[in-house]
Amino acid sequence: MNAPVKIETTLKDWETDQEVRWCPGCGDYAILKAVQRTLPQLGSDPANTVFISGIGCSSRFPYYIESYGFHTIHGRAPAVATGVKLANPDLDVWLVTGDGDGLSIGGNHMMHVLRRNVNMQIMLFNNEIYGLTKGQYSPTSREGTRTPTSPIGSVDHPANPCAFALGSGARFVGRGIDVSKNLPDVLNAAHAHQGAAFVEIFQNCIVYNKDVFDAFAAPKGAEGQQLWLADGEPMLFDKGEKGLAFDAENLHFTVVDVVDGDWQAAGVRVHNVKNRVMAHLLAELPFGEFPMPLGVLYDDPAPTYESAVIAEREASVSGKEANLAKLLSGGQTWTVDGTAADPV
Amino acid sequence: MATQAPAASTDSSPTPDAIVVRFAGDSGDGMQLTGGQFTLSTALAGNDLATFPDFPAEIRAPQGTLFGVSAFQINFGSRAINTAGDAPDVLVAMNPAALKVNLPALKPGGLVIVDTGEFTKRNLDKAKYDASPLDDDTLAPFDVLAFDISARTLEAVEPFGLGKKDGLRCKNMWTLGLALWMFDRPREPLHDWLNRKFAKAPDIAAANIAALDAGHAYGETAELSAPLKQVHLPPAPSEPGLYRTITGAEAVSLGLVAGAQLAELPMFFGGYPITPASAILHHLARLKEYGVTTFQAEDEIAAVCAAIGASYAGQLGVTSSSGPGIALKTEALGLGIMTELPLVVVNSQRGGPSTGLPTKTEQSDLYQAVYGRNGDAPMPVIAARSPGDAFEVAIEACRLAVKYMTPVMLLTDGYIANAAEPWKVPDPSSFEPFPAKFLTEPRGEVLEPYKRNENGSRPWIKPGTPHMMHRIGGIEKDATTGNISYDPANHQLMTDTRRDKIANIPVPDQEVAFGETTGKLAVVGWGSTYGPIKQAVRRSIDKGCSVSHIHIRHIWPLPKNLGELLSGFDRVLVPEMNTGQLKTVLRDQLLVDAESLTKTSGQPFQIAELEEAICAYFDGVKGNEGGEVQANEQQLPSPVESE
Ligand SMILES: Cc1ncc(C[n+]2csc(CCOP(=O)(O)OP(=O)(O)O)c2C)c(N)n1
Ligand code: SF4
Ligand SMILES: [Mg+2]
After folding, report:
1. Is the CB of A26 within 6 Å of ligand 2?
2. CA B184 to CA A58: how far, in whole Å?
3. What strands, in cross-sheet order, belong to the sheet with B69-77?
4. DSSP letters for A212-229
5. C-alpha dist (Å) from residue B217 to B153, B156, B176, B178, B206
6. CA-wise closest residue to B352 among B581, B554, B143, B506
7. Could you tell me where the Polar residues compositional bias lies (chain A) (predicted)?
């Protein structure tokens, strides 16, 4: 149901007259551009597109996209979006949320929108910090993160957004980086997926959590730590000189060296986006020992919530007539004429 | 009936024109079902009626205990009935606990029917009786009919080969049969109903019918020995038309369906289960063919947010809960107010705060409705006064929401939600339609999503409409473009605009429900206190008191004439099932010296206690010399709660 009619637009058509208010250098700018580049590729119709967000720096996003937009309240965007999709399944809905908005205050709604599989694209801008409220640690902040509310370092264990999504029953899980040129490809794939498509985007909060992703996301020199996954392709990284092999006995991945491009000989595994177990393993791959898996980790569509609701409604409506007068006089009735009751 | 009613609590006529019966038993005894079916037969007999189901919060409380007692009271008569009645004339007690809990309510001289089969040592212990009340003088002030209903039921169902346990399940039908005989009611509708209910188990149907018939036959034979007498109440005079019984929860559901149709909109209903609001979600879930989508959300926040999303997308968003859930929705209501989208919020109030008394009634969420949001966040608040009234009030809520692009709070309560009354089926075409209008084309050079019409409402623009893209949200909006604005003057303007939009909604002038338009005392109520206040005022007028009953539907904004109307009375008394919330609103809005009569026992007001409070204002009325409002004993917890 996404964008039934393809419309020809340019990046400019998706820009609003509103002044963009993020800090200079914020990763959100790059994501905005990537989305504005993606929408014309998709042939999206601005009139049929709705961006819905919660609260946070990231959630300002809808104001900057020339489409319909609803900046809701902290954490609740998935619920609002569910109502929008049930009321009009033809709308193409994009959800924008942050690590605090989507996993802290709104974690419950995130879980349910994913398990219900409401057809929309969900972009979670993960900067591992509460940006808008000036830099407190978030549910994705790493242990030891020093912030105004954790002056000697946070002690909470962080949540892993992609693992959370899979655990909630998501049928599409992807990952991208704000400044990566591959981000539009991930968004294209998310859009092509019918159902809730969850995309975690590593986003640099230059003010409160500067460069925390540099080990794999730095614009220069970190490419070797990025494992871009592609369906049916071997899991190679670091210019193809390394790959992931699978230790079937111990049920975990290992990093192997690939000599002369012979990945088969090295035992490198081919990525299958429909393999849910592998998706779990990839989502939880400990960075450092392993590269950061990016791209489409999992993509295996299932019937959407709206379609099930519509089917159920059609089934229960068929053969029934919506006669209000009849409904009001339902059950056992009796008539009164004059002053005396006359049981019927 | 065998009893002569005390003058204070029923009419003075010698032949009863109304009778109050209470069925009480263990929560597993099926008393609510018995009451419900008896209600239907009463309605079919043309009597006016009101009911009060009163059940414990526990789903299956331990058998035989005092807190596991479930009761169903019905007041029916050959005249207009507005309340479920104060004190029962007849009490049916299916076990010692039911007797213990309910006996204090029985009228002196009233009839008590007990099942001696249940008066075992064990059950007496559980009911905390040291000796059997059947053997001492506990029941001396009453007429007593004590016999082994359990044994007689087992006898009656014996041919159907049910075990003892299943056989005893038919006890409530046996009792119902006896009650049908007592009030001269036909059994056929019950036979039909049982055959339908147990269509898949004809044996069970037959056993229940046999029990019902046996109870009925017992009445016939036992009539010879007092105190059992058959009573026939002639039908109550009522407006000609087609009638049915309706509970408040049904009426709200049907009113919402009608309201959405009058607005020519599909309805989206977001809910999360909570007593006593769930019944509305249950009803609407079955009405998909009326363009209703129900959504059981993960919590109340998601329920209201999804409803807001649906309204944004062009449907009529509705959400419903009880106090604790409404509290969770509060932040989202602010979003609805800020983005000016239609939304109907139904609060079926229950005893609070916190989890409070889930199955008991209270009116203590009025402050929450009127004042209970962050920021200056006004929304209309309206209240239903009876089960049947809830239908019209629900339509009114839809109308206000759509016409003024605003969330609207509809207050009802646990009593209205569960209680049944005869309802004259309205003709849907008698309601003025209020079709929703969507803006589909810009009104000028620029799209101005916050430019208002003559009602002060902004346009409703559905996403999906070409050339109308715009952004909305909870941050303060520019007064016309709707873009984010932190401008001080704009926030002042928008705050005033939101306030005035709601304050200026034209509300019908307040009328007097009963009595003269001026006088010594105005008794002002809202919500489910309508019935008892009306009867208490009627009786007080009969005694010569200059008192009138005023009942408010539109609580925010208040009717414009209300201040003037109240100034025609020397004193204003506001009975409420809270600590005085409407009183505060009236004082705040109208500067009237309103006084409170409060009750928060989880039980509705009784006519007698209101009558006493009213008469206390009048010197020279017999028995009420002095003039001070008496302490309200009903505020003491009832025996069930003191357990
Ligand atoms: C109910 C509520 N609680 C708290 C806030 C304050 N608040 C606004 S944004 C935010 C955290 C945002 O963090 P995140 O979702 O990670 O977004 P970011 O700013 O980092 O993009 C908080 C706590 C709020 N607006 N509403
Ligand atoms: S605080 Fe951080 S996330 Fe927010 S705008 Fe500034 S850089 Fe971006
Ligand atoms: Mg963040």
Report:
1. yes
2. 72
3. B48-54, B69-77, B18-26, B90-93, B111-115, B143-147
4. TTHHHH-TTT-GGGEEEE
5. 12, 11, 12, 8, 16
6. B581
7. 136-152
| Contacts B420 to A, Cβ<8 Å | none
Helices A305-317 & A77-87 angle (0-180, nearest 10): 40
C-alpha dihedral sign at A259, A265, A266, A271: positive
Alpha helices in B108-242 (DSSP H): 121-126, 149-157, 164-168, 171-182, 188-197, 202-222
Contact B189 A330 (CB under 8 A): no
Ligand 1 neighbourhood includes A126 CB (under 6 angstroms): no
CB A57 near ligand 1, within 6 Å: yes
Taking CA atoms only, the protein residue closest to ligand 2 atom 2 is A205
- Return the closest-CA partner of residue B471 out of B463, A31, B315: B463
Long-range contacts for B133-142 (Cβ within 8 Å, ≥24 apart)?
B133/B96, B133/B99, B133/B100, B133/B103, B138/B103, B139/B103, B139/B112, B141/B108, B141/B109, B142/B106, B142/B108, B142/B109, B142/B110, B142/B111, B142/B112
User: What is the whole-number distance in angstroms between the Cα of residue A131 and the centre of ligand 3?
Assistant: 5
pLDDT digits (tens, 9 = 90+) for B171-183: 999 999 999 999 9
Of A70, A320, A343, the CB nearest to B473: A70
Chain A residues close to B426, C-beta within 8 Å: 328
Q: What angle do CA A151, A152, A158 make, to 5 degrees?
A: 90
Distance, CA of B72 to CA of B36 (rounded, Å): 8
Q: Report the distance separating Cα A315 and Cα B471, nearest Å.
A: 36
The alpha carbon of residue B55 and the mean position of all alpha carbons in its chain are separated, in whole angstroms, by 14
- Note the pTM of the prediction, 2 decimals: 0.90
Length of chain B, in residues: 643
The rounded radius of gyration (Å) of the Cα atoms in chain A is 24
**Closest-CA residue to B319 (of B350, B352, B341, B338):** B341
List the Cα angle B302/B303/B307 in 5-degree steps.
Answer: 110
Helix, strand, or coil here: A9? coil
How many CA atoms, within 13 angstroms, populate the side-chain half-sphere of residue B535? 24
- Ligand 2 pocket check for A57: Cβ under 6 Å: yes
pLDDT (tens digit per residue) in A288-337: 999 999 999 999 999 999 999 999 999 988 888 899 999 999 877 888 87
Integer-rounded Cα radius of gyration of chain B: 27
Q: Which of B589, B586, B561, B555 is nearest to B571 (CA)?
A: B586
Output the CA A26–ligand 2 centroid distance in Å: 5
The token duo for A167 is 């655990």
Helix H, strand E, coil C: the string for B280-317 is HHHHHHCCHHHCEEEEECCCHHHHHHHHHHHHHCCCEE
Q: Which two tokens stand for residue B445?
A: 């050079």
Residue A130 Cα to ligand 1 midpoint, Å, equals: 6
Rounded CA-CA distance A55/A75 in Å is 7
Among protein residues, the one with the nearest Cα to ligand 2's atom 8 is A26
Identity of the residue in B44, B310, B313 whose CB atom sits nearest the CB atom of A334 = B44
Cα B11 to Cα A18: distance, rounded to the nearest angstrom:
72
ipTM of the complex: 0.97
Tell me which amino acid residue A28 is: D
Residue range B347-398, pLDDT digits in tens: 999 999 999 999 899 999 999 999 999 999 999 999 999 999 999 999 999 9
Nearest to A182 by CA among A148, A213, A152, A217: A217
DSSP string, B466-509: TT---EEESS-B-TTT--B---HHHHHHHHHHHHHHHHTS--PP
Over residues A76-104, the mean pLDDT reads 98
- The residue among B276, B248, B351 whose CA lies nearest residue B635 is B351
> How many angstroms separate the CA atoms of A146 and A155, rounded?
10
Which residue type does B48 have?
D
